[in-house]
Protein backbone atom coordinates (compact mmCIF):
# COMPACT_ATOMS: atom_id res chain seq x y z
CA UNK A 1 0.00 0.00 0.00
CA UNK A 2 2.99 2.35 0.32
CA UNK A 3 2.89 2.99 -3.42
CA UNK A 4 -0.65 4.34 -3.34
CA UNK A 5 -1.02 8.05 -4.12
CA UNK A 6 -3.22 8.85 -1.09
CA UNK A 7 -3.03 8.11 2.61
CA UNK A 8 -6.70 9.05 3.26
CA UNK A 9 -9.65 9.70 0.98
CA UNK A 10 -12.68 11.46 2.50
CA UNK A 11 -15.75 9.95 0.79
CA UNK A 12 -19.09 11.78 1.06
CA UNK A 13 -17.20 15.06 1.37
CA UNK A 14 -20.03 17.22 0.01
CA UNK A 15 -22.55 16.12 2.66
CA UNK A 16 -23.26 17.96 5.90
CA UNK A 17 -20.82 15.90 7.97
CA UNK A 18 -18.48 15.34 5.04
CA UNK A 19 -17.85 19.08 4.64
CA UNK A 20 -16.83 19.21 8.29
CA UNK A 21 -14.29 16.40 7.77
CA UNK A 22 -12.71 18.45 4.97
CA UNK A 23 -12.54 21.46 7.28
CA UNK A 24 -11.01 19.34 10.04
CA UNK A 25 -8.29 17.95 7.78
CA UNK A 26 -7.58 21.42 6.41
CA UNK A 27 -7.17 22.83 9.94
CA UNK A 28 -5.41 19.96 11.71
CA UNK A 29 -3.30 18.07 9.18
CA UNK A 30 0.17 19.47 8.61
CA UNK A 31 0.79 20.09 4.89
CA UNK A 32 2.89 17.25 3.50
CA UNK A 33 2.19 15.00 6.50
CA UNK A 34 -0.80 13.22 4.97
CA UNK A 35 -1.64 12.85 1.29
CA UNK A 36 -5.41 13.22 1.18
CA UNK A 37 -8.20 13.72 -1.32
CA UNK A 38 -11.96 14.28 -1.26
CA UNK A 39 -14.50 12.09 -3.01
CA UNK A 40 -18.20 11.69 -3.68
CA UNK A 41 -20.71 11.31 -6.47
CA UNK A 42 -21.04 14.96 -7.62
CA UNK A 43 -17.95 16.73 -8.93
CA UNK A 44 -19.55 20.17 -8.93
CA UNK A 45 -20.48 19.96 -5.25
CA UNK A 46 -17.05 18.61 -4.35
CA UNK A 47 -15.36 21.46 -6.17
CA UNK A 48 -17.57 23.89 -4.24
CA UNK A 49 -16.49 22.35 -0.94
CA UNK A 50 -12.84 22.50 -2.01
CA UNK A 51 -13.23 26.21 -2.85
CA UNK A 52 -15.17 27.05 0.31
CA UNK A 53 -12.61 25.40 2.58
CA UNK A 54 -9.69 26.68 0.56
CA UNK A 55 -7.71 23.48 0.12
CA UNK A 56 -5.65 22.27 -2.81
CA UNK A 57 -6.50 18.58 -2.89
CA UNK A 58 -7.55 16.15 -5.60
CA UNK A 59 -11.23 15.53 -6.29
CA UNK A 60 -12.30 11.95 -7.02
CA UNK A 61 -15.77 11.09 -8.34
CA UNK A 62 -17.71 7.85 -7.90
CA UNK A 63 -21.30 6.94 -7.22
CA UNK A 64 -21.45 4.53 -4.27
CA UNK A 65 -23.33 2.00 -6.43
CA UNK A 66 -20.75 2.05 -9.26
CA UNK A 67 -18.39 -0.81 -8.48
CA UNK A 68 -15.78 0.13 -11.08
CA UNK A 69 -15.61 3.76 -9.98
CA UNK A 70 -15.51 2.85 -6.28
CA UNK A 71 -12.76 0.31 -6.95
CA UNK A 72 -10.75 3.02 -8.68
CA UNK A 73 -10.91 5.25 -5.61
CA UNK A 74 -10.39 2.58 -2.95
CA UNK A 75 -7.39 1.09 -4.76
CA UNK A 76 -5.60 4.46 -4.62
CA UNK A 77 -5.71 5.03 -0.86
CA UNK A 78 -4.46 3.40 2.32
CA UNK A 79 -7.48 4.59 4.37
CA UNK A 80 -11.04 5.35 3.29
CA UNK A 81 -13.09 7.66 5.56
CA UNK A 82 -16.81 7.41 4.77
CA UNK A 83 -19.60 9.81 5.80
CA UNK A 84 -22.14 8.88 3.09
CA UNK A 85 -25.16 7.33 4.79
CA UNK A 86 -27.52 5.64 5.31
CA UNK A 87 -24.69 3.13 5.23
CA UNK A 88 -26.97 0.15 4.73
CA UNK A 89 -28.01 1.77 1.43
CA UNK A 90 -24.75 3.33 0.26
CA UNK A 91 -21.90 1.59 2.09
CA UNK A 92 -21.86 -1.99 0.84
CA UNK A 93 -19.79 -1.62 -2.33
CA UNK A 94 -17.37 0.71 -0.53
CA UNK A 95 -16.66 -1.76 2.28
CA UNK A 96 -16.49 -4.65 -0.20
CA UNK A 97 -13.85 -2.77 -2.18
CA UNK A 98 -11.89 -1.93 0.98
CA UNK A 99 -11.75 -5.60 1.93
CA UNK A 100 -10.72 -6.67 -1.58
CA UNK A 101 -8.02 -3.99 -1.92
CA UNK A 102 -6.89 -4.25 1.72
CA UNK A 103 -7.73 -0.61 2.39
CA UNK A 104 -8.45 0.37 6.01
CA UNK A 105 -11.89 1.89 6.59
CA UNK A 106 -13.70 4.09 9.13
CA UNK A 107 -17.22 5.52 9.22
CA UNK A 108 -19.82 7.02 11.57
CA UNK A 109 -22.65 4.52 11.22
CA UNK A 110 -24.87 3.55 14.11
CA UNK A 111 -26.77 0.99 11.99
CA UNK A 112 -25.96 -2.11 14.01
CA UNK A 113 -27.85 -4.62 11.79
CA UNK A 114 -25.70 -3.46 8.87
CA UNK A 115 -22.55 -3.79 10.98
CA UNK A 116 -23.69 -7.31 11.84
CA UNK A 117 -23.86 -8.08 8.11
CA UNK A 118 -20.32 -6.78 7.69
CA UNK A 119 -19.10 -8.99 10.53
CA UNK A 120 -20.70 -12.09 9.03
CA UNK A 121 -19.54 -11.33 5.49
CA UNK A 122 -16.06 -9.87 5.87
CA UNK A 123 -14.53 -10.39 9.31
CA UNK A 124 -12.55 -13.54 8.55
CA UNK A 125 -11.10 -12.26 5.28
CA UNK A 126 -10.23 -8.84 6.67
CA UNK A 127 -8.64 -10.49 9.72
CA UNK A 128 -6.54 -12.77 7.54
CA UNK A 129 -5.35 -9.82 5.44
CA UNK A 130 -4.74 -7.41 8.33
CA UNK A 131 -7.33 -4.96 7.01
CA UNK A 132 -9.00 -2.86 9.70
CA UNK A 133 -12.65 -2.17 8.92
CA UNK A 134 -13.87 0.02 11.78
CA UNK A 135 -17.46 1.28 11.72
CA UNK A 136 -19.04 3.32 14.55
CA UNK A 137 -16.19 5.85 14.84
CA UNK A 138 -18.42 8.84 15.66
CA UNK A 139 -20.22 9.90 18.82
CA UNK A 140 -21.69 6.48 18.49
CA UNK A 141 -19.69 4.75 19.68
CA UNK A 142 -16.23 6.11 20.54
CA UNK A 143 -16.87 7.54 24.05
CA UNK A 144 -18.63 4.38 25.21
CA UNK A 145 -16.28 1.91 23.56
CA UNK A 146 -12.96 3.64 24.08
CA UNK A 147 -13.92 4.79 27.58
CA UNK A 148 -14.83 1.27 28.66
CA UNK A 149 -11.60 -0.12 27.21
CA UNK A 150 -9.53 2.46 29.10
CA UNK A 151 -11.35 1.77 32.38
CA UNK A 152 -10.92 -2.00 32.04
CA UNK A 153 -7.24 -1.78 31.14
CA UNK A 154 -6.60 0.63 34.03
CA UNK A 155 -8.20 -1.82 36.45
CA UNK A 156 -6.18 -4.72 35.07
CA UNK A 157 -2.81 -3.02 34.72
CA UNK A 158 -2.79 -0.46 37.54
CA UNK A 159 -4.90 -2.21 40.18
CA UNK A 160 -4.01 -5.80 39.30
CA UNK A 161 -7.57 -7.06 39.45
CA UNK A 162 -10.48 -7.69 37.07
CA UNK A 163 -13.45 -5.60 36.05
CA UNK A 164 -16.96 -6.89 36.66
CA UNK A 165 -18.96 -3.96 35.25
CA UNK A 166 -18.72 -0.55 33.60
CA UNK A 167 -21.51 2.00 33.52
CA UNK A 168 -21.48 5.15 31.39
CA UNK A 169 -23.50 8.27 32.18
CA UNK A 170 -24.10 10.80 29.42
CA UNK A 171 -24.96 14.48 29.48
CA UNK A 172 -25.05 16.41 26.20
CA UNK A 173 -26.35 19.47 24.38
CA UNK A 174 -26.50 19.55 20.58
CA UNK A 175 -28.64 18.97 17.52
CA UNK A 176 -29.45 16.38 14.87
CA UNK A 177 -28.52 16.47 11.21
CA UNK A 178 -30.64 15.11 8.39
CA UNK A 179 -28.26 12.29 7.55
CA UNK A 180 -28.52 10.82 11.04
CA UNK A 181 -32.30 10.93 10.89
CA UNK A 182 -32.30 9.38 7.40
CA UNK A 183 -30.26 6.45 8.71
CA UNK A 184 -32.72 5.98 11.58
CA UNK A 185 -35.72 6.11 9.23
CA UNK A 186 -34.12 3.59 6.89
CA UNK A 187 -33.57 1.23 9.80
CA UNK A 188 -37.23 1.47 10.81
CA UNK A 189 -38.26 0.79 7.21
CA UNK A 190 -36.02 -2.27 6.89
CA UNK A 191 -36.71 -5.85 7.83
CA UNK A 192 -33.82 -5.72 10.29
CA UNK A 193 -35.42 -3.67 13.05
CA UNK A 194 -36.17 -6.77 15.14
CA UNK A 195 -32.42 -7.42 15.45
CA UNK A 196 -31.80 -4.17 17.29
CA UNK A 197 -33.16 -5.49 20.59
CA UNK A 198 -30.57 -8.30 20.74
CA UNK A 199 -28.02 -7.11 23.34
CA UNK A 200 -25.34 -9.36 21.79
CA UNK A 201 -26.10 -8.55 18.16
CA UNK A 202 -22.44 -7.89 17.29
CA UNK A 203 -20.96 -10.58 19.53
CA UNK A 204 -18.70 -13.01 17.61
CA UNK A 205 -18.89 -15.62 20.36
CA UNK A 206 -22.20 -17.13 19.25
CA UNK A 207 -25.27 -17.89 21.34
CA UNK A 208 -25.58 -16.50 24.85
CA UNK A 209 -27.49 -18.02 27.73
CA UNK A 210 -30.92 -16.64 28.63
CA UNK A 211 -29.43 -15.44 31.94
CA UNK A 212 -26.72 -13.43 30.15
CA UNK A 213 -29.23 -11.92 27.75
CA UNK A 214 -31.54 -10.92 30.58
CA UNK A 215 -28.68 -9.42 32.59
CA UNK A 216 -27.74 -7.22 29.64
CA UNK A 217 -31.17 -6.02 28.56
CA UNK A 218 -31.48 -2.32 27.71
CA UNK A 219 -32.91 -0.17 30.52
CA UNK A 220 -36.53 0.77 29.90
CA UNK A 221 -37.39 3.11 32.77
CA UNK A 222 -35.84 5.95 34.79
CA UNK A 223 -34.25 4.92 38.07
CA UNK A 224 -32.25 6.21 41.00
CA UNK A 225 -28.59 5.08 40.78
CA UNK A 226 -26.93 4.86 44.22
CA UNK A 227 -23.47 4.61 42.66
CA UNK A 228 -23.68 8.26 41.56
CA UNK A 229 -26.44 9.42 43.93
CA UNK A 230 -28.80 10.78 41.28
CA UNK A 231 -31.45 9.81 38.76
CA UNK A 232 -30.72 8.30 35.37
CA UNK A 233 -32.77 7.39 32.32
CA UNK A 234 -32.30 5.12 29.30
CA UNK A 235 -29.93 6.67 26.77
CA UNK A 236 -31.41 6.66 23.28
CA UNK A 237 -28.04 5.63 21.79
CA UNK A 238 -27.58 2.81 24.28
CA UNK A 239 -28.96 0.19 21.90
CA UNK A 240 -26.07 1.04 19.57
CA UNK A 241 -23.20 1.70 21.95
CA UNK A 242 -23.71 -1.28 24.23
CA UNK A 243 -23.55 -3.70 21.29
CA UNK A 244 -20.26 -2.20 20.16
CA UNK A 245 -18.76 -2.41 23.66
CA UNK A 246 -19.84 -6.05 23.98
CA UNK A 247 -18.19 -6.84 20.65
CA UNK A 248 -14.98 -5.27 21.95
CA UNK A 249 -15.19 -7.38 25.09
CA UNK A 250 -15.73 -10.55 23.08
CA UNK A 251 -12.90 -9.81 20.62
CA UNK A 252 -10.44 -9.08 23.43
CA UNK A 253 -11.47 -12.34 25.07
CA UNK A 254 -10.27 -14.10 21.91
CA UNK A 255 -7.01 -12.15 21.62
CA UNK A 256 -5.74 -11.50 25.13
CA UNK A 257 -6.90 -10.95 28.71
CA UNK A 258 -10.74 -10.67 28.72
CA UNK A 259 -12.54 -7.65 30.14
CA UNK A 260 -13.76 -9.73 33.10
CA UNK A 261 -15.75 -12.79 34.11
CA UNK A 262 -19.46 -12.14 33.50
CA UNK A 263 -18.51 -8.57 32.54
CA UNK A 264 -21.46 -6.24 31.96
CA UNK A 265 -21.75 -2.81 30.38
CA UNK A 266 -24.69 -0.41 30.48
CA UNK A 267 -25.24 3.29 29.88
CA UNK A 268 -27.67 6.02 30.84
CA UNK A 269 -28.57 9.67 30.60
CA UNK A 270 -27.62 11.41 33.85
CA UNK A 271 -29.68 14.16 35.50
CA UNK A 272 -28.27 16.31 38.27
CA UNK A 273 -30.05 16.64 41.63
CA UNK A 274 -32.18 17.91 43.25
CA UNK A 275 -34.84 17.49 40.53
CA UNK A 276 -33.14 14.69 38.62
CA UNK A 277 -36.22 12.46 38.80
CA UNK A 278 -38.42 14.93 36.93
CA UNK A 279 -36.36 15.32 33.72
CA UNK A 280 -35.48 11.60 33.86
CA UNK A 281 -39.17 10.71 33.70
CA UNK A 282 -39.92 13.42 31.12
CA UNK A 283 -37.08 12.50 28.75
CA UNK A 284 -37.91 8.79 28.97
CA UNK A 285 -41.55 9.45 28.09
CA UNK A 286 -40.67 11.86 25.26
CA UNK A 287 -38.16 9.46 23.74
CA UNK A 288 -40.63 6.59 23.83
CA UNK A 289 -43.31 8.77 22.26
CA UNK A 290 -41.04 9.98 19.44
CA UNK A 291 -39.69 6.49 18.75
CA UNK A 292 -43.20 5.09 18.59
CA UNK A 293 -44.36 7.91 16.32
CA UNK A 294 -41.64 7.52 13.68
CA UNK A 295 -42.37 3.80 13.45
CA UNK A 296 -45.91 4.62 12.26
CA UNK A 297 -45.76 5.66 8.57
CA UNK A 298 -48.79 8.02 8.65
CA UNK A 299 -47.45 9.91 11.68
CA UNK A 300 -43.90 9.93 10.34
CA UNK A 301 -45.09 11.38 7.05
CA UNK A 302 -46.46 14.32 9.02
CA UNK A 303 -43.33 14.76 11.12
CA UNK A 304 -40.65 14.22 8.48
CA UNK A 305 -41.03 17.56 6.64
CA UNK A 306 -40.53 19.34 9.98
CA UNK A 307 -37.23 17.58 10.70
CA UNK A 308 -33.76 18.27 9.23
CA UNK A 309 -33.37 16.76 5.76
CA UNK A 310 -30.26 14.95 4.40
CA UNK A 311 -27.57 17.54 3.71
CA UNK A 312 -28.85 19.84 6.45
CA UNK A 313 -28.17 20.10 10.15
CA UNK A 314 -27.72 22.41 13.13
CA UNK A 315 -26.51 25.98 12.73
CA UNK A 316 -22.89 26.90 13.33
CA UNK A 317 -23.98 28.59 16.57
CA UNK A 318 -25.73 25.43 17.81
CA UNK A 319 -22.77 23.24 16.92
CA UNK A 320 -20.25 25.59 18.54
CA UNK A 321 -22.28 25.95 21.75
CA UNK A 322 -22.93 22.23 22.18
CA UNK A 323 -21.01 19.93 24.50
CA UNK A 324 -20.99 16.40 25.93
CA UNK A 325 -19.76 14.52 28.98
CA UNK A 326 -19.46 10.76 29.19
CA UNK A 327 -18.70 9.82 32.81
CA UNK A 328 -17.65 6.21 33.28
CA UNK A 329 -17.70 4.12 36.43
CA UNK A 330 -15.77 0.86 36.57
CA UNK A 331 -16.54 -1.65 39.32
CA UNK A 332 -13.80 -4.14 40.18
CA UNK A 333 -14.18 -7.71 41.33
CA UNK A 334 -12.85 -6.74 44.79
CA UNK A 335 -15.16 -3.76 45.36
CA UNK A 336 -13.09 -0.80 44.15
CA UNK A 337 -14.37 1.91 41.83
CA UNK A 338 -12.56 3.62 38.97
CA UNK A 339 -13.92 6.74 37.32
CA UNK A 340 -13.30 8.05 33.84
CA UNK A 341 -14.38 11.02 31.79
CA UNK A 342 -14.50 11.70 28.07
CA UNK A 343 -15.85 15.11 27.13
CA UNK A 344 -15.49 18.05 24.81
CA UNK A 345 -17.00 21.34 23.72
CA UNK A 346 -19.04 21.35 20.51
CA UNK A 347 -22.15 19.55 19.34
CA UNK A 348 -21.57 15.82 19.94
CA UNK A 349 -23.38 14.66 16.80
CA UNK A 350 -21.29 16.92 14.57
CA UNK A 351 -18.24 18.58 16.11
CA UNK A 352 -17.27 15.65 18.34
CA UNK A 353 -18.26 13.08 15.72
CA UNK A 354 -16.01 14.73 13.15
CA UNK A 355 -13.10 14.84 15.59
CA UNK A 356 -13.58 11.18 16.53
CA UNK A 357 -13.82 10.11 12.89
CA UNK A 358 -10.94 12.14 11.52
CA UNK A 359 -8.59 11.20 14.34
CA UNK A 360 -9.56 7.54 13.81
CA UNK A 361 -8.55 7.80 10.16
CA UNK A 362 -5.31 9.53 11.12
CA UNK A 363 -4.51 6.72 13.57
CA UNK A 364 -4.61 4.30 10.64
CA UNK A 365 -2.66 6.61 8.35
CA UNK A 366 0.07 7.77 10.74
CA UNK A 367 0.28 5.38 13.71
CA UNK A 368 -0.14 1.94 12.20
CA UNK A 369 2.77 0.34 14.07
CA UNK A 370 1.38 1.43 17.46
CA UNK A 371 -2.15 0.10 16.98
CA UNK A 372 -3.55 -2.81 19.05
CA UNK A 373 -2.24 -6.13 17.82
CA UNK A 374 0.44 -4.57 15.63
CA UNK A 375 0.10 -3.81 11.93
CA UNK A 376 -1.16 -7.31 11.07
CA UNK A 377 -4.36 -7.19 13.18
CA UNK A 378 -7.51 -6.90 11.07
CA UNK A 379 -11.20 -7.71 10.84
CA UNK A 380 -14.48 -5.92 11.41
CA UNK A 381 -13.24 -4.16 14.50
CA UNK A 382 -14.46 -1.56 16.99
CA UNK A 383 -12.79 1.74 17.91
CA UNK A 384 -11.35 0.07 21.03
CA UNK A 385 -10.04 -3.08 19.36
CA UNK A 386 -8.89 -1.36 16.19
CA UNK A 387 -7.44 1.87 17.59
CA UNK A 388 -7.25 1.66 21.40
CA UNK A 389 -4.72 3.81 23.24
CA UNK A 390 -3.51 5.42 20.04
CA UNK A 391 -6.90 7.04 19.49
CA UNK A 392 -7.10 8.10 23.15
CA UNK A 393 -3.76 9.89 22.87
CA UNK A 394 -4.67 11.56 19.59
CA UNK A 395 -7.96 12.81 21.08
CA UNK A 396 -6.13 14.25 24.09
CA UNK A 397 -3.71 16.00 21.75
CA UNK A 398 -6.71 17.34 19.80
CA UNK A 399 -8.07 18.99 22.96
CA UNK A 400 -10.59 16.44 24.16
CA UNK A 401 -10.79 15.51 27.86
CA UNK A 402 -9.86 11.83 28.41
CA UNK A 403 -9.25 11.13 32.11
CA UNK A 404 -9.03 8.09 34.43
CA UNK A 405 -8.56 7.62 38.17
CA UNK A 406 -9.53 5.66 41.27
CA UNK A 407 -12.78 6.95 42.77
Automatic annotation (TrEMBL):
Occurrences of domain Saccharopine dehydrogenase NADP binding (ranges): 8-134
Cellular component aspect of the GO annotation: plasma membrane
Gene3D superfamilies xrefs: NAD(P)-binding Rossmann-like Domain (3.40.50.720)
Entry's Gene Ontology BP terms: glycolipid biosynthetic process
Record InterPro entries: NAD(P)-bd_dom_sf (IPR036291), Saccharopine_DH-like_oxidrdct (IPR051276), Sacchrp_dh_NADP-bd (IPR005097)
Record protein name field: Saccharopine dehydrogenase
Amino acid sequence: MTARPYDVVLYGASGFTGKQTVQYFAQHVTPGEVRWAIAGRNREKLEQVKAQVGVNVDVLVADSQDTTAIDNIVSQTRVLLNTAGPFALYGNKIVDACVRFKTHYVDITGETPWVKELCDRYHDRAAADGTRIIPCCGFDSVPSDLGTYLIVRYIQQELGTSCRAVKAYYQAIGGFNGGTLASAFNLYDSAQLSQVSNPFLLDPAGDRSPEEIERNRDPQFPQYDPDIDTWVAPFFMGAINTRVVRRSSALYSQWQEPYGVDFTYQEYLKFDPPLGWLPAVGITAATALFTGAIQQPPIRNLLQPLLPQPGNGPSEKTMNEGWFRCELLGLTSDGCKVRGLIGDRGDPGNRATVKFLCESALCLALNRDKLPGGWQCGGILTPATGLGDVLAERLRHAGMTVELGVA
